[in-house]
Design a protein that fits this description.
By secondary structure, the protein is of the alpha/beta class. 43% of the residues lie in helices and 15% in strands.
Length: 299
Amino acid sequence: MTFPKEVSIVEVGPRDGLQNEKQTLRVEQKVELIKLLSETGLNRIEAGSFVSPKWVPQMANSGEVIKALNSKANIRYSALTPNLKGLEAAIESGVKEVAVFGAASESFSQKNINCSISESLKRFEALFELANHNNIKVRGYVSCVMGCPYEGDILPKAVTQVSKELIDMGCYEVSLGDTIGVGTPKATSVMLDDVLKEIDVSKIAAHFHDTYGQALVNLYTALGYGVSTIDSAVAGLGGCPYAKGASGNVATEDVLYMLNGMDISTGVNMNKLLVASSYISDVLGRSPVSKSANALLGR
């Protein structure tokens, strides 16, 4: 195995993490969390989501949050925009990067956004046009890359097809999401063997949930393939509100501890990350779901 010398960590806690929390945070609490994360060395932070507050009420104040952030030249604050209306709202808030999502599972696509995979991608055409016109970068997510709560196992070729279509439409990078965390190292290998036949590894990111405690070993496997971008959430926040049993994202602290132990550079300071972890855990009234954070904070 040849591992990358550097890895870019994409912090998704303020969006993918908090969207699945029962507690809705105030604007100033979210801004404080993102401010603390911005001081750690993390330079890619997903700050919110422009979706219907009817479906994801925790993200209803994303526009206010993003407007309240102090823009830093070295930090990319992004937002999820599932449709044209969401993108228009994101542009109004000043976002310079957005994300769209497709699924490798037809059933998940239907239950999540009430349309087929092909229909969901077709809807993005106008979004990409507007994003390009406004010089906004677009990142892609693919859900259920190793399993679906409705269909079970997912064929790797389905992951490859959706990922390639997103890149062909204009995504600079596609993040492969193990939405319900059922993946194993073998499944990760089988999936990446297929995807990387069609897509350069530099355009692929890993977004693995830790439902069955497999996220780190799956990330280790992906690193061995040369994947050098990892999505994670501070304190192990969140999950997917549409996937029953999905307990949450892999914790940024645990990812960082592993990468530090592998001498892989990230530019992220663990001590400062622990400050952010302690803050959001206190706000939510519980301990971090991160073994590394609990061990280091307990010293």
